[in-house]
Amino acid sequence: MAVVRGSWVVGVTKRTQAGLEPAPTRYANVDLDVYADVPLDGFVRALGEEALVLYVGGTRRKYEAHVELASSRMAISADDTIVELIRLIRGLPRVHRQTWNSARRREFNLGIEAGLEPHSFELSLQPRTLKAIADVRGVLVITVYAPDLRKAVPPVTRSRTRSR
Predict the structure, then answer these.
(1) Per-residue b/e over 35-55, b at no fewer than 16 CB within 10 Å?
(2) What number does CATH give the domain 22-148?
C-alpha cells in the first residue's frame, strides 16, 4: 500500500514523485580506463577509429585515458563491448601494447544507470569475457550511477492571479 505525503508517494521499498513513471535500471556502457606513468595520446590514437576518446591527458607521471567503443551506443551487450575493446588492445602495435602492459591500472568499467525499478537488476558476464579481461591483465570495475530524480521532476508551473 502506498501512502501520499506531500508530493511523494511512499511505498514499502522505494519513493517516487507522484504521477511519474520510475525509470528502469539499465546497463549503460563499458568504458576502458587506463592510468599510466607515461602520456597515453599515442596509445589512444593506435586504438583507431573504433575507439571514441572521452578523455586523454595528465601531467607528471599521472596520465589517464578514457575511451569507449564508437559503436557502443548501438545497444550491444556488455560482453560484446568488452570483447571488442580487448580485440583493439590485442591489435595494438608492440610499442603501444607495452604502454598498456606497463600501465598502473587497466580497467573495463561497466556502467549501470540505477532506476527505481525493478527491485533488483542482474547483469552477468560470460566466463570467456572474464578470462579475456584477465588475459590482457585488466580488471573489471562496476560503476552504478544513482537515478537522477531532477530529470524526472516535471517543471513547476505557477498560475498568476491578477488583483484588481
Answers:
(1) bbeebbeebbebbeeebeeee
(2) 3.30.70
- The residues that bridge with 58 in the sheet, in sequence order, are 63
Which pLDDT tens digit goes with each residue over 25-84?
A: 999 999 999 999 999 999 999 999 999 999 999 888 899 999 999 876 677 899 999 999
Q: Where in the chain are the domains?
A: 22-148
Element (H, E) at 2: none
Residue 97, by phi and psi: left (phi above 0), alpha (psi -120 to 50) or beta? Answer: alpha
Rounded CA separation 53/66 (Å):
6
127-135 vs 78-90: helix crossing angle, rounded to 10: 30
Residue 162 gets which letter from DSSP?
-
